Structures
1.
Amino acid sequence: MAPALRALSNASRLWLAAGNLNPPIANQFVFEGRGVFDVPLWRKAVDTVAAANSGVRLTLQGHLGCSRWVDSGLSTPLAVVEAPGWDGRGSDRAPFLNGGFPCRGGSMAEVLLIPGDPARVIFRSHHATMDGRGTFTWAEDVFRALRGENMLASDVGIIEDDLLNIGPGPAGKPISQRFVGPRLKPPGAERGIIWRRLTIQGRFARLLPQVMVLTAREIRSTVSGPVRFGIPVDLRSRRENIRSTGNLTNALFMEVDPADTVEDLARELAQRLRERRDGQVTWEDKVVRYLPLKVLEAALRIETRHAHRTGNYRCSGLISNVGRADLGSFYGGGFTAENYWAVPVCLESIPISIVMTGVGETVNLLLAMPRALATYEDLNGILGRLASGLAPAQDI
């Protein structure tokens, strides 16, 4: 039996169950640019990074409370994908983004090279093993290897539980399903997630709270009720010198009232982050590690059906500001990156998921929703209204 490299946290267990039920539950970072790929050099670089960082070679062993991540010994798959009909603006014509990952005996990540103008490189990883920052760190390492630079150290064993600040006291009750999402059409029987991307020019101060306010208004334009967003927070800053490809993100949940302003939410976000208020353990947290994945999948399936039928969810949506990146070091192997964006992680039990990335004066705004709740036209309309409602930095 292989030695454990990392414990399986409750959050990762839920991501595994969700990924089995509704694949892919994946971080998907797309780097757009120019060039002609030197495929053998890319293959060598991906292998070099995998050999140096066992965090990208994880596979699951054990069951229930004895589950753990171990070293699969496998390198990361790399494939060249021809996608002449895909413009990078949405999930249509992109079946290569729909593949899941086998949690046992296979790789939990892959690299896709898409030739063309623009050329694109896609780093895909299961959210149970990596988060957005972890996937970005892995991508940084691959580009370093492409240029023949030395690999940087990466902490494999740490999990988000090691960094959380959970309040004292007995386990609380689970969050009730009482928060609303946009009601754009009667819920259908369609499965899967659809997404669209909109590119905006300019710089926007307080981008995250702006999008929170605008999204809450968008939801309330279709239905009345309380709105609650999950805001992914990278926990790495809580301990010195953490460099990890792992999943070290925790969601900070915030209700947005109709009277809340951008300033109100910015102030509350800053305070919550400063005080590291990560919430309270619930009785679900106590028992989830002892439940088989099949039981968790069944519970998620029942919750999704109930939420779509009633229009009430545990969370109105997820909103993540991945941040502005300097792509100056993202070149090598015949490719130079000029833009990047990330496909939102979205479950069918979450009505809306938004991700923002930035490069220079460009902001990429991506919106994902369950296919049962929205059409591509709905997504285009929401994105357009969000973009038109953003106030430039000089106006705040």
2.
Amino acid sequence: MIHALQYPDRVTLEKAMSPGGFCLEPRRVAGLYELVYVCPCGCGVIGRLLVGDGHKPGGDRPSWNWNGSREEPTLQPSVNHVDHWHGYLRSGYWVLA
């Protein structure tokens, strides 16, 4: 398990490059965010997920339902960072599938 530490913005996240670290960037539509994260495997690759606060956004790109917690985030469904890591973000921890 890797702890998902929240950073206040992308610049701070990219300076720290802590595996599993993340920040939330609000989208123009209320309740939608880009969850920007450092791959939990430790490779240093940055990923982006479209998340909805309490709902799974629709549309033509993959999206995740976020529980709205910044301290103990949970996403549904699993996160597949292709060729790097596949698992879940549950109660503030990245857990391998």
